[in-house]
Amino acid sequence: MQTKGMLIVISGPSGVGKGTLCNLLLKRKKNIILSVSTTTRLPRDGEINGKNYFFVSKKDFESMIKENQFLEWAKVYNNYYGTPREFVNKNLEKGKDVLLEIDIQGAKQVKHNCPQAIFIFIMPPSIAELETRIKKRGTETQTSLEVRMGNTVNELKAAYMYDYIVINDDIERAVTELCSIISAEKCRTSRNKDTIEDIIKKGVY
Ligand code: 5GP
User: Contact 108/160 with Cβ under 8 angstroms?
Assistant: First the structure.
């Protein structure tokens, strides 16, 4: 029997639609729970503390780093973001699959500490389409848009360190692919050694 949950890491450039895809994934796969990150970024309109992020001050975040409270943390566009270690471990132990929607720096740390995690990178159909989506979202100033776009090529090259890529050109197809990846990973021999042993142990009687 698979006793421990899987850790699923999803990254991708800003504006690629990770949030929407993750929400659809959570609706379809009931065993997955989203890890709510802690950040020093200010809440955007409509964001709720404890649901989208835990919003904290820089001072509090730095204390939490010292107390080793994060499974990984990174500074992204001048703000800190981190994954609460205790929440993740507790849920994995319970057999829940835990989803982390984190940046590339964070994914590297997770890969180092939890190599058995599944790493999925969401790609835009093109860089031009990505820019259009970010502009439509309307959350960036011209300067911050330029900073984010300037970073895009490097961000896309990071796809090579992930196990899978999913191109978000069609949301329905993309979420189906995410579900398929997760279903296939559940069937991996290395994740099912106990099941194999259980069946063998029961013998022929
Ligand atoms: P946003 O400010 O647009 O919500 O997020 C900016 C970036 O931070 C996104 O790429 C998002 O995936 C990443 N991010 C969100 N939470 C975490 C986290 O806990 N750790 C890391 N490393 N990155 C995060």
Answer: no
Q: Could you state, in order of their start, the residue ranges of all structural domains in the chain?
A: 7-35+96-202
| pLDDT at site 2 | 44
Domain 7-35+96-202 has CATH 3.40.50.300: yes
Please name the residues in contact with 139: beta carbons below 8 A apart, sequence gap of 6 or more.
44
Ligand 1 atom showing the smallest separation from residue 38 Cα: 19
Q: How confident is the model at residue 138 (pLDDT cuts 50, 70, 90)?
A: confident
- Round to the nearest angstrom and report the end-to-end CA distance of the chain: 20
Give this prediction's pTM: 0.93
Q: What is the mean pLDDT of residues 49-61?
A: 97
Q: Is the CB of 105 under 6 A from ligand 1?
A: yes
Q: Which of 83, 103, 104, 152 to mutate to test ligand 1, by most ligand atoms within 8 A of the CB atom?
A: 103
Ligand 1 atom 9, closest CA: 103
From the CB of 109, is ligand 1 less than 6 Å away? no
